[in-house]
Protein 1
Amino acid sequence: MKNYLQRKLLGMLPLLFLVSAAAFALVRLMPGDAATAYLNAMNAPITEAALHKVQKDLGLDKPVVVQYGIWLKQALSLDFGLSYMTKRPVIDELMLGFYYTAVLTGSAVVWIIVFSLPLGIMAGRRPGSFMDQFIRAMTFLGSSIPSFWLGFLLVEFFSLRLKLLPVQGAGTLKNILLPSITLACSYLAMYTKMLRGGIVEHSGGTYVLYARARGLKRRTILWRHILPNALNPVLTSLGLSLGSMLSGAVIVENVFAWPGMGRVIVRAVAGRDYPVIQGYILVIAAVYIVLNLGVDILCAMLNQRIFTEEET
Amino acid sequence: MIHRILEDKICRFCLVFLLIFTCAALFAPWIAPNDPNEIHYTARFAKISWKFPLGADYMGRCILSRLLYGARLSLGSAAGITIASSVSGTILGMISGYLGGRFDRIFMGVCDAVRAFPGMVIVLVFVGILGTGLLSLCLGMMATRWVWYTKVARNLTRAERKKEAVLASVMAGSRMAGILSHLIFPAIRMPILAIATLQFGTALTALAGYSFLGFGAAPPSPEWGMMIQDGRSFISTNPSMLFWPGLCILMVVIAANILGDRIQEISEQVRK
């Protein structure tokens, strides 16, 4: 177990290095040089003296490796510099958005659990039944529908036609209903399908046959024996999905004007606000990596089999 | 094995469906009733009519014509991404699985690293460096998508590698390229095809999503995601502007998903 964790942790290091290098390279490789871009963004006149000063201020006259070192040190202390557009610290902008994005993602996870668990069980219990076919059709629809389009359809129907829910904004419980369902939709479909597959697969196992022979009730076998096994891959992917949901939230946030990180990044890309883009990349990547690690640890604790299967 | 796909009713239906969309994209200049970017000020928000079969948008541009021309951009880019990443990913995976040993271990580590990366971050890096546009979007998406094929191709290749036919040709002195293309690829192409089909759907949705956010095609180009973005301001008065492009995306993606799922099932049946 300890060995496994060590290996996982060590495996994260090159990943973190790659992300930081990519984020750093972003500013180095962007069209035009960084000093000019900085002056442009600050709306300052571009003169020889000003360029020189900015190059000195930003440390652009030093070798690239040294620049990377300095930049990394600052980034590690969460200092991503000032936003070109708002002139405020990047980390403040991101953290404000991060809270809302986390709330949105969290609520979506609640929907996923609340819906895909019963749907997956209903479909998997009797494969081929009408219920199974119906849920299967729904999962195809759910996983195929583009989230932004679904969002607009929901707004059109619930907010504009029925006037039940607010069109956009954040704050109350009513506000979060539509965005979180929109975000959850495709994942919900995916997990329903995955759970159904797991239940069907495990139902054919010899241990199920044996449990039947022992005279256990079907219900007991399903809940006590099949479901824990079928849930295993679901849990692993749920961790991975959390990360991709954080970035998938970008679209949903823009549909519903939800004040999360997604709004910040879209504005930053449009305005070529490089410090914000850099900061966003680092924060998302870090969260993603930490989540992955957490899931790995969780799964390792739940399922000792990983260690024996690891070497195949 | 391809004939098994063509014999299957569900697959045939989806293929015909996708073919119709492909033809619509290919023959857009001949089918489209109007110029997709021509502005008819008198026809703003025109209702469905003979001149504008699906109505007109806020600038009086024909929605159907824009959809047809948009199909070229959306479907073409999604297909390009899928083909490029599936070919490169499969070749890399097969080589890695064939060679095995240390190279394989290190390369799989790299793949795991790429897989653990949120695709959005890479897309942002590309968009940041190259500027917004369909090309940088496609490159950014390809940069992470090849890895899904690599893993599968590698594992399947490792299983094939142990078969007698492969061992025999290794001993007979065949070159790696020959073994991979003649013995291993035919055995693993079905699962790869299934992934590629499914990935085509996700590529289309993701592409439209990024364009919707303004990372992709620039206006006035009629990319489907862009059209939805255009229509969002008029959702309360003219929802049809964003309804049609979304429906197109949905239909293509559903067809691709069902087809990919079915191919996967067939390839599993064949395996057994």
Protein 2
Amino acid sequence: MQGNEACMEGALAAGCMLFAGYPITPATEIAELMARRLPQAGGIYVQGEDELASLGIVLGASASGWKAMTATSGNGICLMQEEIGYAAMTEIPCVIVDAQRAGPGTGIATKSMQGDVYQVRYGSNADYSIIALAPSSPQEMFDLTIEAFNYAESYRTPVFILSDEIVSHMRERVTIPAPEKIRLVDRKKPEVPPEQFVPFRAPSPDGVPPMPSFGDGYALPISSFARTETGRPVTDYQSQTRLVQRLWDKIEKHADSIAMVETEGMEDARAAVLSYGSVARAAKDAARKMRLQGKPVASMRLITLWPFPDERVRDLAKRVKTIFVPEMNVGKMVREVERVAGKYADVVSLPKLGVDIHTPAEIQQAVERMFS
Amino acid sequence: MNAKRKDVDGSKEPKHPVLKHFREDSPGTPHLWCPGCGVGQVWHYTTRAIEELGLDENKVLWVGGSGCTGRMCTYWHKDFFHTLHGRALSFATGVKLARPELTVLVHSGDGECVAIGGNHLIHAARRNVDVTLIAVNNFNYGMTGGQFSPTTPLSVYTATSPFGNPEEAFNLSGLMREAGATYIARWTTVHARQVINAIKKGIQNKGFSFVEILAQCPTQYGRRNKLGGAVQMMEWLKSNSVLKEKAEKMSPEELKGKFILGELYSATKPEFSEYMRAMASEAARKAEDG
């Protein structure tokens, strides 16, 4: 099964009821497959007039109680940034697939790059947090799409599936479990009657307010103005700080539980290769080859990119002398690695600027220089 | 709406008839509109239309974006969706698809719905999604200080056209007819009863309804073009308006600079969310039959 197809299957398994999108390479297959499969499952496919409309439609459906998603590439994310910031501020759950392609600008529509890792995190105005997951196989396009919906519902946030052209178009065997074996999460609904309901008060320590839908009788005030817990627009320092801090903390303070990381060869490792997405396939392969040759090289694959899994990377840094970070961009996530690991280990960036993925041999060569 | 504070204080002063629809915890209570602004009148007319139709207010969603008109939804005491500048119709479309039983009302100003939101406007009309767009056209961007908009007439003065507006104005209702709206009416703030009826008909129309209301903006547009205060501006709107029936008998020269009012168009076409749902159940049936 193709990566994009697995993503569509994952969305259906998660209970996605609406997909709105604008065709773009290399994400288009998700839209095409959704157009056929979603109505058959009782859902709705909408082709937006552009990316802004598409995510707007998704957010309208989600605020009305449906699980909804869109899929695009980096250029489409540029257009969606306005709605992404709105979703973060108003805490409307949504899933956004970014099948990254080479850029900047129109770039190369049919070739891969991992250039959007900061765009999805910091692209909209001012301060907020989001969750981003980086699949590296069609199986993970399925699994992580379900997880993305679960996170979106749990934390009331946009969740990105940061695929790339390689993973989106790759074909591999995908195992789809029976529906009863799939863990699904739905957003918390208010447990109080409308007259006692405070729209943006988070009674539980997770900082996530319960969310009724339009039409449920809760007089829901949704606006991206800075607001009090009641939804009243405000302009004062305290209210702004309280709100933005909560939006940040509800995700960042749960970074450890959101963190999904895959490691290999951690015992006695002296070096490590840290990677994500398609590049992780080559990185893992390179590390295995070196271990077979008796060189203690671990591999760490970040499945959760944002919030950045500080604890796990710090733990790795304390074990090894050097961390190599191959990625298909000028060296972006490596900055996060340096921030967390710099005190304990040397951090070496191995950038490639898209189109061709790193070969295991390239990564191996770079790492082996350390041993020579 | 200044009566609001007194009502809250338990005063015996009579309540303003729309106060019961007004959100208790609204921003800058009573509201932020300038004295004499037409937006407040449209707020009133909208609640009257809802009352007269006897709608369950928990099933009426007000949607808006930015600007003076975009703010209207934030004062509605039930569900509101204050979205992004120009995007109100996209969000509204998503709501209608997921919750077709809701009455979805969008208030947009001329800047919002035809400049930054122009693309969404024509496509919402083309899809004939069951949303009523109440477009308050006051010929300029009021909130940001009175810059020219796509409906500002040629050569008039605004904050960004100090030598006269160099652009021709859009004919919104004409645009909507071409785009596929199935109910189109145009009135002014002076025409209270006609506006209420048009909003009611818009809500009852199963499809995309476009109710354009020409409104006075004495603070910005009126001041710069020496059109006087609110009352004089409403006189100006009235005296420059011609009913559709009369306009049909007038020459293009006679109609120059005139606003043509009335119920301009209505049609019956498949509604988007209904069509989508029918398509889905048919697709599901075929899928089950293999």
Protein 3
Amino acid sequence: MVQVKKLKDGSRQVILTAQQFDEITKVLSELAAKTKASTILLADISGQLITQRGNTEDINTAILSALAASDFAATSEMAKLVGEDAKFKLLFHEGEKRNVYLSNIGDNFFLVVVFDVSVTLGLVRIYTKKAIHGLLKIFEESEQGEDAGKIIDKDFSSMLGDMLDDSFK
Amino acid sequence: MFINWALQEINLKIVYYGPGMSGKTTNLEYIHSKLDPSLTGELVTLKTKEDRTIFFDFMQIEVGRIKGKKPKFNLYTVPGQVYYASSRKIILNGVDGIVFVADSQRDRMEGNIETLLDLENNLMASGFSLETFPWVVQYNKRDLPNAESIAVLQKKLNFFNVPQFEGVAIKGTGVFDTLKSIINLVVQHVQKQL
């Protein structure tokens, strides 16, 4: 499963294996093909972009996922204010040329689907729901990923320090 | 922290926190203006007409590959004004390290303390505490005539003795030292946790 580790101090660490990443990419490609969505993003609720499909050249997708995460977070605060105990599960933004459909995937992730107004919302809803089902299954599959400790070792920190010095001249 | 093994990416989230008008956005603007454009994305700022951040500022920086891995740093600021309390809580979601930008001016001390307590409350709500969480403090606006002495600021704000920096963010003084320090702390912290 996607390792969402709670560390000693309470912080959260999300680790995705290469195999999971491939499977996720497959699900998103299918969603893109079925809905003709122009852009699809999968992100983590803290706003970190995990993967993307479709036209991602003209859009700064790192920013889009950061904004979408806060959009989600803002509406869940809204939910609390109006007395809705659960979070709102989906958000829909309607434009003149483009629509944006956001839907959560479990507690830790969400999908952003950007599509042309000529595509009907119903179609997007049906296929997004199917994709979420597929993604949840991938997230649940038990496979132990490597530990962050294997990447972030002593060497790594000192090299990172040098690179930062180099970049921050 | 988010690690993607397929792309060999490590994503870390760093949040600039502090009272209104203390210079959080200015820190990000300076970093953005000085970094090579190949290392940084666009700086998004959601500001009101009065130059106040309404939701957050966001910028991503990359420093190239290290041992084949690609670290990415996502920098955020929070709105300092008291009435944006819920946006602040939201932005702290999944945070890996915090830069507390304090306003050195004598009459802003209350604001600094209040915001620091607000930060501690928000962290506690997610199960963290300033005592153990990676954070640094930047005493900004050192160039102003009514700036409080570092000794007093240290005593009132830096009770956990975290790394501290003197800043004049508008001129860039202390900005990169602060950022480097928080990145190092976060990386060390990740090592210690494992």
